């Protein structure tokens, strides 16, 4: 009698299927779709992964009506959706108004009501349009783990009307444009129900944005603030007043160089763990250019660094990588960063020192070797990070909330 047991794919535990599909990732749509055909037990699990992350780009003359209709008609599929990304098809930095699609509030709420298991919502370069108050007055509050919202064009009062319908664990708020028709802002009855807030004010006139944020953001809420590129702004952001008002629990802070004494606010931020700064110099340079780079770097080394908390856990410096010839390498006569490592000894809990470049004219191995010459101790300890990132897209591509969840 043959006692050999035959095991088929369908006999394998479902947990194994989930792990295989998680390794594929939601980007590999064709493979995920093919997995649903392997056996009957794989069908539902594959669809869960296939529809868990939905990305819906639209042109400026298109609507999201078809999305609303689809999720309303296909309840089972809608129940699989965990992450929803709505954005302009032609995503542009800096934003271009004419390229942005419009999304009325009532249509947005139709979509959200049809997605019972949604945990992450991202709306990027979308014009949120107001709707009849009667269309939204009977809605329940939506719970989200993470929401990213770039405010575009709609009046800021409608912005907080929208946000008042959510309970959000972690919220990225990027106010892109000011409301030019308004001179004073009243928050009214709307309030933020947010556990941790990241503000990135990409707006040419931030006064009104900060006016309303100071009304609706309590001290415990703001956990991350990112100062946009100075080339975007026509007027300075009142960052010090804002941080003094609501920055008591801020964990992650990004600031740009300024002619003001903004660094004096740092000792008033007792929860600060991650500090980001734009050095506006290169990792190394020709000896003839060193004096100028040292002058630029002096403000950070002499003013900002001494005011950072000693229990800082991560220091992130944005700089450029030079296109030099003649065999120039980092050394005392070519790098303004030379000797900085000794100054960093005042941060004994530093877990990561990051050098971030917008681009590299060499391979990553060469860049890491050059950085290691400037920071040999941190390199040997394994805490030196070298990476290439576009600052304008960093908040979008590099989610900080894994770190924030550990701190909250």
Automatic annotation (TrEMBL):
It comes from the Eukaryota. PROSITE patterns: FBOX. SUPFAM superfamilies: F-box domain. Pfam families: F-box-like (PF12937). InterPro entries: F-box-like_dom_sf, F-box_dom. Residues 6-67 form the F-box domain. This is F-box domain-containing protein. It comes from Dichomitus squalens (strain LYAD-421). The lineage of its organism: Eukaryota, Fungi, Dikarya, Basidiomycota, Agaricomycotina.
């Amino acid at each position: 009698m043959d006692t050999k047991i035959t095991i088929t794919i369908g006999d394998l535990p479902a947990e194994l299927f989930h792990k295989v599909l998680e390794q594929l990732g939601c980007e590999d749509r064709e493979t995920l779709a093919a997995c649903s055909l392997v056996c009957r037990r794989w069908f539902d699990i594959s669809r869960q992964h296939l529809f868990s992350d939905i990305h819906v780009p639209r042109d400026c003359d298109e609507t999201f009506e078809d999305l609303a209709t689809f999720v309303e008609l296909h309840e089972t599929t809608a129940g699989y959706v965990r992450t929803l990304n709505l954005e302009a098809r032609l995503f542009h930095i800096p934003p271009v108004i004419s390229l942005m699609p419009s999304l009325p509030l009532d249509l947005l709420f139709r979509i959200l009501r049809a997605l019972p298991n949604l945990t992450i919502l991202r709306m990027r370069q979308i014009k949120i349009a107001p709707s009849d108050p009667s269309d939204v007055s009977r809605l329940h509050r939506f719970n989200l783990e993470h929401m990213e919202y770039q405010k575009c064009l709609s009046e800021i009062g409608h912005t907080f009307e929208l946000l008042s319908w959510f309970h959000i664990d972690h919220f990225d708020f990027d106010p892109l444009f000011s409301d030019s028709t308004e001179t004073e802002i009243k928050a009214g009855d709307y309030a933020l129900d947010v556990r941790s807030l990241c503000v990135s004010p990409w707006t040419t006139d931030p006064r009104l944005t900060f006016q309303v944020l100071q009304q609706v953001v309590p001290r415990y809420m703001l956990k991350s603030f990112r100062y946009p590129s100075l080339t975007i702004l026509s007027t300075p952001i009142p960052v010090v007043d804002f941080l003094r008002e609501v920055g008591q629990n801020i964990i992650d802070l990004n600031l740009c160089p300024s002619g003001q004494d903004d660094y004096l606010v740092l000792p008033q931020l007792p929860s600060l763990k991650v500090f980001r700064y734009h050095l506006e110099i290169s990792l190394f340079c020709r000896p003839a250019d060193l004096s100028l780079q040292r002058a630029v770097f002096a403000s950070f080394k002499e003013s900002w660094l001494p005011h950072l908390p000693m229990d800082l856990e991560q220091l992130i410096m944005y700089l450029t990588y030079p296109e030099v010839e003649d065999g120039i390498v980092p050394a005392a006569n070519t790098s303004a960063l030379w000797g900085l490592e000794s100054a960093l000894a005042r941060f004994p809990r530093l877990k990561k020192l990051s050098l971030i470049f917008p681009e590299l004219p060499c391979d990553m191995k060469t860049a890491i070797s050059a950085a290691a010459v400037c920071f040999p101790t941190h390199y040997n300890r394994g805490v030196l990070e070298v990476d290439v990132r576009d600052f304008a897209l960093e908040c979008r591509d590099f989610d900080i909330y894994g770190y924030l969840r550990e701190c909250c």
